[in-house]
Amino acid sequence: MGYNISIRLDNRRKKKSGMYPIKLRVYGKETQKEKWYNLDIDLTEKKFQEIWLNPNNKKLRGENKELRLKLQAIENRANDEASKLGVFDFKNFEFKLFRKSSDKNNLQFHFNVAIENCIKKNKINTAESFKYTLNSLGTFSNEVKNCPIEKLKFQQINVDWLRDYESYMVKKGKSYTTIAIYTRTLRVIFNNAIEAKDLNQEYYPFGKSKYQILRTKKVKKALNSKELKVLFDAKPANENESKAKDFWFFSFACNGINPKDIALLKYSDIKEDKFTYYRAKTFDKKAEKTEIIIYLTDFTNSIIEKYGNKNKNSFVFDILNENDDANEQHKKIKNFTRYINDHIKRLAVANKLPSDISFYYARHSFATNSLRKGASMEFISEALNHSDLSVTKNYFAGFEDEAKKEFANSIMNF
After folding, report:
1. Taken in order 5, 11, 16, 17, is the CA torsion positive or negative?
2. Residue 250 CB partners (closer than 8 Å, separation 6+)
């Protein structure tokens, strides 16, 4: 047993009332560390001796007996939770102990834990994804199953429940992609609960012969070379459209760099004729961190010259501030992305280009046009920072048929 648990009187400092706090003392043998947890109960030394330490405590009556039973229940639960851990550690012990017993099977509780963990790690986008999923599941559970989300248990969510949720979402006009995202997020919460040993594997509703999460293939839209020339030569109606066009083509020229990475780019990342960065979207997902190298051109240098901060000790562009916390950064990047997308759409529509153009078109356009110009899959894979070549092949498989035809027809142009 890698721990010792006991109820103690913390007599290091007497309170004004003349009493001392009662605490749960936990000692981890592996780390040789101890922690004392406040139980919000105060007693005098004499009373503690009488209620907890007196061997004749069977004679206790009334409030004293109730308090004895309460302390015994706390100690028993602490020992019970610690024994279930296998290998004792304070973090997991505290997670298990400081919650209601009903939280173990509660879906909302585990979602909130996941959201909290994401916020602590500054993963604001992921935290929002958990929130959106929880809201969607809560609406369905309340409207269709007549069960408020705060009472929804894992055991209630079976294959039929998930199929009903899918049908409900379709009737609400939600896309299959949205349904897939939400059910995948729900699956993460199930896996978390199983890993925390709060849920038995038998209640897992996903997988073979169970609920199959919808698989959708999103067509990755891109501008062809003629459309790119039209957009590049287009005359913006105002400064907003001009700025949107500049940053859109900056993304395109930098291998489809995304808005967050543009915002996080610092002058210290620039060395001579290139800059290097780590892709924020995949940074935490990979054990091996891959540095992306982007060679600067006359065009990309001109954008940095035009929009770059005069103070070269921080971010290149005036999108973020050094003092911004993760939440503020997230908000500013979203605003920047929305601003560019809104105004590039207006410029595109005015020039009879796709009306759904956005920052992501720049990344897809870089990929397809590189392939059209004869770049190898290996080059594209490295440029896009894909984990392996199969990801790049799947990425190309998602492009529109016109791009595939153009590539097939150009392959024999020696």
Report:
1. positive
2. 257, 262, 299, 300, 303
